[in-house]
Amino acid sequence: MNWFGKILLNAVFFLVLSWLIPSFIVSSIWTAILASVVLAIINVIVRPILIILTLPATIITLGLFLFVINALMLLLTNKIIGDGFIIEGFGTALVVAFLMTLLNIFVNPAISNSKSKRR
Fold it and tell me: 29, CA 20 to 30 Å: which among 62, 82, 100, 109?
């Protein structure tokens, strides 16, 4: 799947999760797309630095600390986007990060496999 497709898929995930989780609010599809783009840029620039700095904690927790890093990336996205993308606390960010990870694990391969079977 190309970069733009992943951005749109994450935007859809944001909208679905905002519908399911009352303390996570995404005001519109355009806000979801903007948040997805900002999160992708943050994940390229900031996330690798945090992963290296927190490598001991990640090793000790057998990788579970990566959910904390993902939650921090979502909170940073929340600060950058502003009023249209609201996460009402770290616990909500952690739940959203966990669910986004699960959705990406299951949906991305399913979409990639269906595209490769059509060709």
Answer: 109
| Distance in angstroms (rounded) separating the CA atoms of residues 65 and 95 | 13
Q: The pTM is what?
A: 0.88
| Amino acid letter for position 110 | A
Taking the C-alpha atoms of residue 102 and residue 1, their distance in angstroms, rounded to an integer, is: 17
pLDDT (tens digit, 9 = 90+) per residue, 76-103? 999 999 899 999 999 999 999 999 999 9
66-79 tens-digit pLDDT: 999 999 999 999 99
List 86's β-bridge partners, or say none: 25
